[in-house]
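Notes continue from the previous slide.

Worked example: a multi-chain complex. Inputs as given:
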Amino acid sequence: EVKLLESGGGLVQPGGSLRLSCAASGFNFNINDMTWVRQAPGKGLEWVSCFSVSDITTYYADSVKGRFTMSRDNSKNTVYLQMNSLGSGDTAVYYCVKNSGFFDAWGQGTMVTVSS
Amino acid sequence: EMVMTQSPATLSVSPGEGVTLSCRASESVGSSLAWYRQKPGQAPRLLIYDASTRATGIPDRFSGSGSGTEFTLTISSLQLEDFAVYYCLHYYKWPRTFGQGTKVEIK
């Protein structure tokens, strides 16, 4: 069974930083693309970033490019999302997602609130 | 950036009835289209990928069709757990984009 467990969310002040983690299990992590998707309160889904194993490239949405950095540690089956220069528009539930082209398995999400 | 437009925004339906949801892409995405159902307070769940393939464990009351720019999700007989928000997603190129969602509510 695929399991994705996010952690690291919380309350942060505008301009601050936060690092999210996602521990994965139940599949061959090393060969799978991984993705972050977020959802602002009461809003729709927004793709944030993806680490492509085949391209050895990380892709980012324009809204986070230059501020967010996605990384992975294959020895720990974990992906990370380093978020800097946070603003109110970044307040959302952040989901870690297993990516087979389409997004086929989702974690339960971790809430990030940017507020003074 | 690919724009995905879902219609209608809201559907009011009685349990047991069938519904058809639409998703339109601003340019062709081939068959690289997925559908998700999101219940309140839960993460989205994959229903359909490659436009028409049901994901593992998804009942056959869900069916997807379309290619290019026009796609539909049909639910043949709504169960209580189907009253939720549905999203389409293209994975044809970067960036990936979702539709804005269709809410299916109880009439």
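Summary box: Chain A touches chain B at residues 35, 44-47, 50, 59, 61-62, 95, 100-109 (CB under 8 Å). The mean pLDDT of chain A is 96.
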